[in-house]
Amino acid sequence: MSVRDGATGRITAVSSDSTHRFSKPNRAGITLLAGLGVAGDAHAGVTVQHRSRVARDPSQPNLRQVHLLAGELLAELAAAGHPVAPGELGENVTTYGVDLLALPTGALLRLGPEAVVEVTGLRNPCLQIDAFQEGLLRRVVGRAPDGSVVRRAGIMGVVRTGGTLRPGDPVGVELPAGEHRPLEPV
């Protein structure tokens, strides 16, 4: 599947949390800070903030400043008996109408009136998902017919231009020039 340049969608929910918890509460709005992430969120920073990554090498650049998840996945999970609300899988921005997983590395997402997030890669889901809801991990990680791993728990990005986001704001896609690189886990 591919995404066309200029594709549009909308933000359906925004979430943040100042502490490291699996789920993030929904907010009326969040502010993205260039080069840092979501203002006040535990994962904001120039260098890695996810605890397992900090333990390995705290000087790594933070390629996971913003976590975006397609609302279409939440609808699919609910239909399969796994009701999950926006923010409960730890995402900051829940979208509708853009195939996030089909974006290439380096795509720019224009969020709301001014914010720009550069897509860095796929979220690599962990066992905490099954601790949240038993059996959920196999719904968001699977295998393609060729045996490769398929990760569907959202994408990660870095903030290039800050701004405030609210539910209902538009999402626009700007594809990078040249050959597109598929998303890899970050």
UniProtKB/TrEMBL annotation:
Protein name (record): MOSC domain-containing protein
PANTHER family: METAL-SULFUR CLUSTER BIOSYNTHESIS PROTEINS YUAD-RELATED, MOSC DOMAIN-CONTAINING PROTEIN
Top-level taxon of origin: Bacteria
Lineage: Bacteria, Bacillati, Actinomycetota, Actinomycetes, Kitasatosporales
Location of region: Disordered: 167-186
InterPro entries xrefs: MoCF_Sase_C, MOSC_domain, Pyrv_Knase-like_insert_dom_sf
Gene3D superfamilies, alphabetized: PK beta-barrel domain-like
A single MF term (Gene Ontology): catalytic activity
